[in-house]
């Protein structure tokens, strides 16, 4: 048995960012972190031509995030996810984009707790893996604590026992998704209150968390912490997650070691006809905050997309970084 549940620390689902290459990269740095896919709509899975459920075996523990609100479709997709070996399936009840609202899913579903409960119920009937919900503390003018608890009451009554709460509300009109991640104020106390009132539920917090120190403060009150933008823009923060949050005594990889561990994966991808920058675009932030990181970023940005670009571009980017780091 594991000392801690995997949901103790997770990387948020992020469209266009947390694809399988990023997730592989994140996994190199942390064995324990729970990884989420980008949101995949039920429509894409059911009617799309690509394989939207593909992932690398190394990515476990891995959760599939679904966008949708049709119980039958969600159940169908959850079943496929379980068959493909996903460890969890999560419903997106937090995204405020217009496109998502038009499809009647994402954050607007907070106003329809009975429907979300029906979705959870349908999914739980066909899978044994956890069915979880990622949501916000409110939408538009519906931002009272009672609104949130009614949602939690209704959805948990159908067997959802794990919630991740982005600790700010969403404005469904007038703000872009990006603004909806910045403008509505964070209210961590509300999430702490929720855990106090629902001690039997697994409650993870999300929003504005940028360090493992902050994560520890939240973990004193809550079951889990989910980090989004910081884990992408400053991925090396993941290198100490296992040691600091999961009690691991394993070694902490250096940035250079992280790159070396990526090399075989990158080479395999290129051999199979993929482009270097599909992977390296996620590695741009690896040296974030260090002297010379600009040279690393620039070398990759200028060269990794070129036809025929191979692993030497990565090695040259490292070399150019060390050359250009100010000496003391
Ligand atoms: C580029 C980007 C894409 C996102 N895509 C999704 C998504 O597909 N599903 C989702 O639930 N949230 C999505 N989010 C929101 C994040 O999961 C997270 O809730 C938000 O960024 C707040 O966490 P943070 O402050 O740690 O970044 C996205 C955020 C970003 C920056």
From TrEMBL:
Site (Interacts with tRNA) location in chain: 92, 178, 181, 294, 297
Keywords annotated in UniProt: Flavoprotein, FMN, NADP, Nucleotide-binding, Oxidoreductase, RNA-binding, tRNA processing, tRNA-binding
Presence of keyword Iron-sulfur: no
Gene Ontology MF annotations: flavin adenine dinucleotide binding; FMN binding; tRNA binding; tRNA-dihydrouridine20 synthase activity
Superkingdom assignment: Bacteria
Residues forming the catalytic site: 95
A Pfam entry, by short name: Dus
Catalytic activity: 5,6-dihydrouridine(20a) in tRNA + NAD(+) = uridine(20a) in tRNA + NADH + H(+); 5,6-dihydrouridine(20) in tRNA + NAD(+) = uridine(20) in tRNA + NADH + H(+); 5,6-dihydrouridine(20) in tRNA + NADP(+) = uridine(20) in tRNA + NADPH + H(+); 5,6-dihydrouridine(20a) in tRNA + NADP(+) = uridine(20a) in tRNA + NADPH + H(+)
Residues binding FMN: 13-15, 65, 134, 166, 206-208, 228-229
Entry cofactors: FMN
Enzyme class: oxidoreductase
Record-listed E.C. numbers: 1.3.1.91
Domain DUS-like FMN-binding, first and last residues per copy: 11-316
Purpose of the protein: Catalyzes the synthesis of 5,6-dihydrouridine (D), a modified base found in the D-loop of most tRNAs, via the reduction of the C5-C6 double bond in target uridines. Specifically modifies U20 and U20a in tRNAs.
Similarity field: Belongs to the dus family.
Protein name as it appears in the record: tRNA-dihydrouridine(20/20a) synthase
Native source species: Shewanella aestuarii
């Amino acid at each position: 048995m594991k000392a801690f549940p995997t949901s103790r620390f997770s990387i948020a689902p992020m469209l266009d960012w947390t694809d399988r290459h990023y997730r592989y990269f994140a996994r190199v740095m942390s064995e324990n972190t729970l990884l989420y896919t980008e949101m995949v709509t039920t429509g894409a899975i059911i009617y799309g031509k690509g394989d939207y459920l593909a992932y690398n075996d190394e990515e476990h523990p891995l959760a599939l995030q679904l966008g949708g609100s049709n119980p039958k479709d969600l159940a169908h997709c959850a079943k496929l996810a379980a068959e493909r070996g996903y460890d969890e399936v999560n419903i997106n009840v937090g995204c405020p984009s217009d496109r998502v609202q038009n499809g009647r899913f994402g954050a607007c579903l907070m106003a329809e707790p009975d429907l979300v409960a029906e979705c959870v119920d349908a999914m739980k009937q066909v899978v044994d893996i956890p069915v979880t919900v990622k949501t916000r503390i409110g939408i538009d003018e519906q931002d009272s604590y009672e609104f949130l608890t009614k949602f939690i009451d209704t959805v948990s009554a159908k067997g959802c026992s794990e919630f991740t709460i982005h600790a700010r509300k969403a404005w469904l009109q007038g703000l872009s998704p990006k603004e909806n991640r910045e403008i509505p104020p964070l209210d961590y106390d509300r999430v702490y209150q929720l855990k106090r009132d629902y001690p039997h539920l697994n409650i993870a917090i999300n929003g504005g968390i940028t360090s493992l120190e902050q994560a520890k403060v939240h973990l004193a009150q809550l079951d889990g912490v989910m980090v989004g933008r910081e884990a992408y823009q400053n991925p090396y923060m993941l290198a100490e997650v296992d040691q600091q949050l999961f009690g691991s005594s394993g070694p902490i990889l250096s940035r250079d070691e992280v790159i070396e561990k990526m090399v075989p994966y990158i080479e395999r991808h290129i051999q199979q006809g993929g482009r270097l920058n599909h992977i390296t675009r996620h590695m741009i932030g690896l040296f974030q905050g260090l002297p010379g990181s600009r040279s690393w970023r620039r070398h990759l940005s200028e060269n990794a997309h070129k036809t025929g670009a191979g692993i030497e571009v990565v090695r040259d980017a490292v070399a150019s970084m060390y050359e250009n780091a100010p000496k003391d």
